[in-house]
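Can't paste images in this forum, so I'm doing it all in text. The chain is below; anyone willing to post the predicted structure tokens underneath?
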Amino acid sequence: MSVRNYRDLIAWKKAFELALEIYHSTKNFPSEEKFGLTSQLRRGSFSIVSNIAEGEGRRSSAEFHHFLFIAHGSLRELETQVLISESLEFLKPDESSKLMGMAAEVGRLINGLCKSLRKNLCTTAHCRLPTAN
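Text version of the structure:
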């Protein structure tokens, strides 16, 4: 995998867009959620994009793979928080649907990066890298 910069990665670009959209979507959450759900959603979205960047910056495919797994876990947390936000009526169904669609796309891109890294790292039958779901 030849990447000159993490900003060249489509997964990073889409995760960045998701983080911005989360930030905008939480602007009108109740003020009592400032340190609760609002903060969790924002930090989670920034964690996804940041882990993609940090992993690429490590310059080791194995470490990059590890950070992609962390980003994928943060993505699942974010999806759960979006669903909770919709259930509490902090997000309208169409907003939630848009965010979930963006998250699904980021998830597919992270999985694709993981598969590409595994393919490059696992040239023998002794591959020990986990697979993303």
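Residues 6-121 form a domain with the de novo design (two linked rop proteins) fold (CATH 1.20.1440.60). Residues 93-121 form the longest helix (29 residues).
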